[in-house]
Write a structure and sequence with these properties.
With 190 residues, the chain is an alpha+beta fold. It contains 3 helices and 8 strands; from the N terminus they run αββαββαββββ.
């Protein structure tokens, strides 16, 4: 093994010395010079903004003209109005009772995070989330009533609504369990 190493080293030195001799004999080796490379001149600057502050450049379609922010943003909508129902006759023995529906508490409804994978794919849509709310105003059960078509968006909407707080439904002035459908809209185009 030592013999093979020594033979390889000798062969390397022989090739190295032959390469040096050829480079100096042929005179074809060129040394780098200090001459500067030739570059094309820069284009003329664009015209300055007009008196109204506009740059006179065309904006791409769909560009946000207010602040140039093209980040996707979440657009939340209010829950849809309940479908009209036929009035149910009240039982004769019971007096009519005033009832209300559960409502999200403003300021206690954190927005869902836009899933990175859905954002990369440009996935958008609205998720209708059904929420069963207990008398304490805390979601007891959260499920997807209407899918957006993306499991990532559906999961993000459900996870967000689980952290929400609600004003519970009431009956005769007392909090009771109730349910509501909350639409969560994801818009990758912003």
């Amino acid at each position: 093994m030592l013999l093979a190493f020594v033979a390889g080293l000798l062969l390397f030195l022989l090739v190295l010395s032959l390469g040096r001799n050829r480079g100096t004999e042929s005179g074809s080796a060129s040394l780098p010079t200090a001459a500067s490379p030739q570059y094309a001149p820069l284009p003329a600057p664009l015209p300055a903004a007009g008196a109204d502050g506009a740059s006179r450049l065309a904006k791409p379609p769909g560009a946000n003209t207010a602040d140039g922010d093209e980040q996707p943003r979440l657009v939340e909508t209010r829950p849809p109005a309940p479908p009209p129902t036929l009035p149910q006759p009240a039982p004769a023995a019971t007096a009519s009772t005033a009832t209300s529906r559960p409502e999200p508490v403003p300021g206690q409804t954190p927005s869902p995070r836009y899933p990175a994978q859905a954002l990369r794919r440009g996935e958008s849509g609205t998720v209708n989330v059904r929420v069963e709310i207990g008398p304490d105003g805390v979601p007891a059960q959260v499920s997807v009533e209407g899918s957006s078509g993306s499991r990532h968006l559906d999961r993000a909407a459900v996870d967000a609504v689980r952290r929400w707080h609600f004003r519970p439904a009431t009956s005769n002035g007392q909090p009771v369990s109730g349910s509501v459908i909350v639409p969560i809209r994801f818009d990758a185009q912003g």
